[in-house]
Design goal:
Rossmann fold, about 475 residues, binds adenosine-5'-diphosphate, nine-stranded mixed beta sheet, 2 domains, alpha/beta
Length: about 475
């Protein structure tokens, strides 16, 4: 089977979160299973820095507009692990400081940027290789599915090609003023509430949900949650109407990147059988955050997160006073909303002996925190899939999570430390604090803790099983369109 991935992120070139990890890892696994995968990614300035002059595959792909056209170059991003990557080069749209936004807000032409990207991918695949299925991701490439079933409706080579949409986060929908219909040359009769319109805006994600042949989300629990007003963000009705084509497939972890027995980014290697290296990683982490004289009895608590309301950062701030009365130190890495960046920096200033915060995106440090911490906090308001808790397990770093989305599906708390983590349900900082206290009690019992660490490390969250589930969905939608 030939699958084309169209996405706005793919590690290592362009990453702000889990989407990039999925778009990097799932194709590799599909190729291992014998499938052919092409990945299309915008040629952002950040990508151009890493891959300065890739070979040109197609010098000019036309993206039509009402009174003028744009032209994209398709560049050869190379073939790694059997996955062929293509970069879509439209300098006026992607040669920018950041991927989506500046500190003052989203780029105002994001609709045109990712609408054009989606169209360029369709045009490029028509020349390079038409796939058996398109796999699009989040609002950014939802328009590919919409265009396939509208402006390309009569195209004989695309008619029978289905599209799968994976929703990595329904909190980001890509909404733009109605004139976006004209910008992207979409027929006005699609600007209705049962298609692209939502609150008088063009809603890209809604379009993707309506026009894709099937929809997946990154955990089974999130697939149910987004059909409710609390998590659907206004799209719950649209999602309910597609319930029979909506599937939850829990994300896997790419163990070629995230495995303490081989990770080149950490101070020492370790396995469930030989844990000594973890102590070295812990020392290295404490050193990197300039902590001194932290004994083995002190719990090192790690956080790696986008600093966003979604991630429950306010909970961490809320319990800080109480938490720091315990024998703990807290190391946090993240960036995102300025409000949280400032709040957490203030926390670090207020509690210099116990709290350190690094405000940046730093993959090496993310690995060091996973490897060197004892506990990992994820008190997310909602968490579609979540990857850090799965990485944490592999590194014997016990997660404390809120029971939502993929956290609910991957973390189990059982009495006497018989599970793989600690979990709380209510959206209440007191419940979170209670869960952290339970984790700290277990941590103090070295025997219980070691058993728990080993159990967590031995769990298998590799991509093999989720990739098989994706293939089943691909097969189903290919079959339905024959
Ligand atoms: P989300 O996609 O909502 O941000 P996930 O848990 O699914 O959350 O994925 C987050 C990914 O991004 C993980 O690979 C994590 O290590 C990484 N990450 C998040 N923030 C940072 C950061 N500041 N520096 C390095 N990596 C980060």
């Amino acid at each position: 089977m030939h699958i084309v991935f169209a996405a706005s992120e793919c590690a290592p070139w362009a990453k702000t979160g889990g989407l990039a990890d999925v778009v990097s890892a799932l194709p590799k696994t599909l190729v291992k299973m014998g499938h052919k995968v092409h990945v299309y990614l915008p040629y952002y300035r950040q990508v151009a820095k890493m891959v300065p002059e890739p070979p040109v595959v197609l010098p000019s792909v036309t993206i039509p507009f009402a009174s003028y056209s744009r032209f994209a170059r398709i560049l050869d991003g190379g073939n790694a692990d059997g996955v062929q990557v293509y970069f879509v080069d439209i300098p006026e749209l992607f040669d920018r400081e950041s991927f989506y936004a500046t500190p003052s807000g989203d780029y105002p032409d994001n609709g045109e940027r990712f609408g054009s990207f989606s169209r360029a991918v369709i045009e490029a695949t028509k020349v390079i290789d038409v796939p058996d299925v398109y796999h699009v991701h989040d609002w950014q490439t939802s328009m590919l599915a919409v265009m396939l079933r509208s402006v390309y409706y009569f195209d004989p080579i695309l008619r029978h090609v289905p599209a799968l949409l994976t929703i990595h986060n329904a909190g980001y929908q890509g909404t733009f003023p109605p004139r976006m219909m004209e910008t992207l040359l979409l027929p006005w009769d699609m600007f209705t509430l049962d298609k692209l319109e939502q609150y008088d805006q063009v809603n890209f994600l809604k379009g993707g949900i309506v026009y894709s042949d099937a929809i997946t989300t990154v955990s089974a629990t999130y697939a149910k949650e987004i059909q409710t007003p609390e998590f659907g963000n206004g799209l719950e009705g649209t999602l309910q109407s597609r319930a029979s084509d909506l599937f939850g497939i829990l994300n896997g972890a790419d163990y070629s990147e995230w495995d303490p027995s081989s990770d080149p980014l950490i101070a020492a290697h370790f396995t469930p059988q030989k844990l000594d290296g973890k102590k070295e990683c812990r020392r290295d982490l404490l050193h990197a955050f300039r902590f001194e004289n932290v004994t083995d009895d002190t719990a090192v608590i790690g956080v790696v997160s986008r600093f966003a309301t979604q991630k429950g950062i306010d909970f961490i701030v809320d319990i800080m006073d109480r938490l720091l009365k315990e024998d703990v130190v807290l190391v946090m890495l993240g960036n995102g909303e300025e409000y949280y960046e400032r709040l957490l920096t203030e926390m670090a200033e207020r509690y210099p002996e116990k709290v350190r915060v690094q405000v940046k995106f730093d993959n090496v440090m993310a690995h060091k925190i996973e490897a060197g911490s004892d506990l990992f906090l994820m008190p997310s308001r909602y968490e579609p899939g979540g990857l850090n808790q799965i990485y944490s397990l592999k590194y014997g770093t016990i997660p404390v999570v809120r029971a939502t989305g993929g956290l609910q599906d991957s973390i189990e708390e059982l009495p006497n430390g018989d599970g793989n983590g600690f979990k709380f349900l209510g959206y209440d900082p007191n419940d979170f604090f209670e869960a952290v206290l339970r984790a700290l009690t277990a941590f103090r019992d070295k025997k219980v803790w070691k058993v728990m660490m080993k159990r967590a490390m031995e769990q298998d969250f590799s991509w093999d099983k989720p990739a098989q589930e994706y293939v089943r969905v691909y097969e189903r939608i290919i079959q339905n369109r024959l």
